[in-house]
Specification:
With about 300 residues, the chain is α+β, with helices and mostly antiparallel strands. It has 2 domains: about 5-90 and about 130-305, Bira Bifunctional Protein, Domain 2 (BirA Bifunctional Protein, domain 2, 2-Layer Sandwich), CATH 3.30.930.10; about 90-125, no CATH class. The chain has 11 helices and 14 strands. The chain has a 7-stranded mixed sheet with strand order 3-8-9-14-12-11-10. A 3-stranded antiparallel sheet has the order 4-6-5. A hairpin with a 6-residue loop joins strand 1 and strand 2 (about 35-40). The two termini are about 15 Å apart.
C-alpha cells in the first residue's frame, strides 16, 4: 500500500498533482508550460508501457519502424495537417544570414527583442503524430494482405497548458493498418478491445468514448461533427486530473481513404487504400498510473509492477 505522502486524493487539482510530481522528482520543471524533464522512475514506467504495446501487437507481425521527431516539411504539407491543425504545428527554423544579420540577432537577444525574425524555415517540422511518416513510406501498391506497421516517436503539438496530461512534447506509440476498408475497420475495432485489455492489466479504470480531433476553425467544426457522425474515432479515457472529465490516453481511428488519396497508396486491387491506426500516449498513461496507484512506483501493486517489468 502507498504511504500517505505518495497518494493523491481523488479531488486534488491539476496544479496539486503537478506539484506532487515535481516534489517527488518524477517531473522536472523547465519553465515552459507542458515541457518537462522526467526522472529514472518515470522513464522506467514509460519503457514498461512501450513494451506492453509492442507485445500486444506481436501476433499481427507488424513491420517495426522508428522515425526521428522531425519529418520533412513537404510531408506535412502533403498530409493536409496545416488545413486541419495549424494551431498545433511546430516548424523548425534556423539562422542563415551573414555577419550583419548575426550582429542584429545578438542585439535583439541582448535587448529582449524578437530575434526569431532573423531565422528562416528549414525543410523539417516537428512530428505531430508517430504515424505520419508511415503514410509517406507506404506510397504505391500494397501487398495483397495489406500492411501493419508499428511506429513510435516523440511528437510535438503547440498547446501549452498547466494540465499535466497536455504536454507539448510527448511520446506516442502507434500501430497502423493499411489495406481495404473492411480490414481497417476491423483493425480499429480490434484495437479498442486490445487497448482496454492492456490498460486494465495495469490497473487503470478505462472506458471507451466516441471522439473527434481538435480541428481548427469553422471548417474544423464541420469536420469534427462529421467524424463523430461517421464514428471514425474513439478514445480510451482514464482519470488523471478529473474523474468527471477523464483524459484520453489512447485513441483508435479509421481515416477512410484520406491518407491513401493524399499519398497515392493503393490496395492490391488498385483501389485507393484505407488506413487506420491506434495510438498510445506513453506519458499520459504513466500519469494515469501515478494518479491511480500513487507517486511511488516501487509501492505499486505487485501485478502492475510485474506487467510493467518494474
Amino acid at each position: 500500500m502507498c504511504s500517505p505522502s505518495a497518494t493523491l486524493a481523488p479531488s486534488s487539482t491539476a496544479s496539486e498533482f503537478v506539484s506532487a510530481l515535481l516534489a517527488e522528482g518524477l517531473l522536472i520543471d523547465t519553465g515552459v508550460p507542458g515541457v518537462f524533464g522526467k526522472n529514472g522512475a518515470f522513464e522506467a514506467v514509460v519503457r514498461g508501457i512501450d513494451a506492453l504495446v509492442e507485445a500486444a501487437a506481436e501476433d499481427m507481425r507488424p513491420e517495426l519502424v522508428r522515425f526521428p521527431p522531425v519529418i520533412p516539411r513537404s510531408l506535412i504539407e502533403r498530409s493536409g495537417y496545416l488545413a486541419g491543425f495549424p494551431q498545433l504545428i511546430g516548424a523548425v527554423h534556423s539562422f542563415g544570414g551573414g555577419d550583419a544579420d548575426h550582429a542584429s540577432l545578438l542585439r535583439a537577444v541582448e535587448q529582449g527583442g524578437n530575434w526569431g525574425e532573423f531565422l528562416s524555415s528549414t525543410d523539417v517540422v516537428l512530428t505531430p503524430a508517430a504515424c505520419y511518416p508511415v503514410y509517406g513510406m507506404a506510397a504505391g501498391m500494397l501487398p495483397p494482405e495489406g500492411r501493419v506497421v508499428d511506429a513510435a516517436s516523440y511528437c510535438f503539438r503547440h498547446e501549452p497548458s498547466s494540465e499535466p496530461g497536455r504536454m507539448q512534447i510527448f511520446r506516442m506509440h502507434e500501430v497502423v493498418r493499411l489495406g481495404d476498408p473492411e480490414s481497417c475497420v476491423a483493425f480499429r475495432d480490434e484495437w479498442l478491445s486490445r487497448g482496454e485489455s492492456v490498460l486494465h492489466e495495469i490497473g487503470l479504470d478505462v472506458r471507451c468514448v466516441p471522439a473527434n480531433d481538435p480541428f481548427f476553425g469553422r471548417r474544423g467544426r464541420l469536420l469534427a461533427a462529421t467524424q463523430r457522425e461517421q464514428a471514425l474515432k474513439f478514445e480510451l479515457v482514464v482519470p488523471i486530473t478529473s474523474v468527471e472529465l477523464p483524459t484520453a490516453v489512447a485513441s483508435a481511428n479509421w481515416h477512410q481513404d484520406h491518407f491513401g488519396e493524399l499519398f497515392g497508396i493503393h490496395d492490391a486491387s488498385g483501389a485507393t487504400a484505407h488506413t487506420a491506426c491506434v495510438g498510445f500516449g506513453l506519458e499520459r498513461i504513466t500519469l494515469a498510473l501515478l494518479r491511480a496507484h500513487g507517486t511511488a512506483p516501487e509501492r505499486w501493486p505487485r501485478a502492475v509492477r510485474s506487467a510493467l517489468q518494474l
